[in-house]
Specification:
Length: about 290
């Protein structure tokens, strides 16, 4: 299978593309990607977009295992498989300091998953992990089983865990993650949260908040947050993040036929109307 077609398949699995479909903004990019794949894969126009998605995902599985493939695998195996998408939150592409965590699972503990595909290098790994430990106690690198030795050599003396993806998409724990709580940084955690989450934390800790102009609100709230211990702020941060549980799309997430799109659904959490738009697009056939 041509490598260009494998890369084309990976482009279809974009949160931005499916957000446009779900919100009703446009199906143009999704239609164009599906059309190119129909032609490249020799699929007829009567094939639905859902079938194109399934074939494209299988193409990634067998060849071009992109970052999305790994994120979707974690969503299916960990978030859905272990937790049934309930009483836990999976955050995809979550900014922490100067880095963006591929996945963060918040349940009884906060765990960051940093994906390193066969196409990645470990060059930025140290700085990424430094950022993650400023906000969360656990971090695990997820890599292909062929790269296990390379990453194990880098991680063997520290708290970072290592999970590998092997045959039949099996996740195997090569090294368990240990907790690291001495690097929490209030500014990093503060900046990772939404304003409503920050104000909720500060009200729970201090009561009424000072009435300040919008222009100085950030500095005033951060000054308050700095009065808390990093451990206490981190605990409240995780509790605040837990409120981001799926509100509308848990059943969609559990639908086995939509397994290739679970990472997209986790990130979008589409409401009923948005789900209808997604399902309508998936059922449509080529023009």
């Amino acid at each position: 299978m041509p490598a260009v077609l494998e890369r084309e398949a990976s482009k279809l699995f974009s949160t931005a593309v499916f957000r446009e479909v779900a919100t009703g903004k446009s199906t143009q990019r999704a239609d164009a990607a599906a059309s190119r794949l129909r032609g490249g894969l020799g699929l007829g126009r009567d094939v639905t977009n859902h079938e194109v998605v399934e074939v494209a995902y299988d193409l990634m599985r067998r060849g071009y295992r992109s970052e999305y493939f790994y994120r979707n695998l974690l969503t299916s195996k960990v978030f859905v498989g272990r937790h049934r998408a309930a009483r836990s939150v999976l955050l995809n592409e979550f900014r922490i300091g100067d880095s963006i965590a591929d996945c963060v699972l918040v349940n009884g503990r906060g765990a960051v998953y940093e994906i390193k595909t066969e196409f990645d290098s470990p060059e930025k790994l140290r700085s990424q992990l430094t950022s993650y430990y400023r906000a969360f106690p656990y971090a695990t690198v997820v890599a292909h089983t062929d790269d296990a030795d390379r990453y194990l050599r880098l991680l063997e003396d520290g708290p970072v865990g290592l999970t590998t993806v092997g045959p039949r998409d099996r996740l195997s724990a090569v090294k368990d993650a240990d907790a690291k709580t001495d690097a929490f940084d209030i500014r990093t955690m503060f900046n990772a949260l939404r304003l409503s989450e920050v104000t909720g934390i500060l009200r729970a800790e201090f009561g009424a908040l000072p009435a300040v102009p919008n222009g100085v609100r950030y500095a005033a709230y951060l000054e308050l947050a700095d009065q808390m211990s990093p451990i206490a702020f981190q605990a409240r941060m995780q509790a605040a993040l837990k409120t981001r549980e799926l509100r509308s799309s848990r059943q969609l997430m559990l639908t086995s036929s939509l397994a290739p799109l679970r990472a997209v659904v986790a990130q979008l959490d589409p409401d009923e109307q948005q789900q209808d738009r997604l399902l309508s697009w998936l059922s449509a056939r080529g023009a």
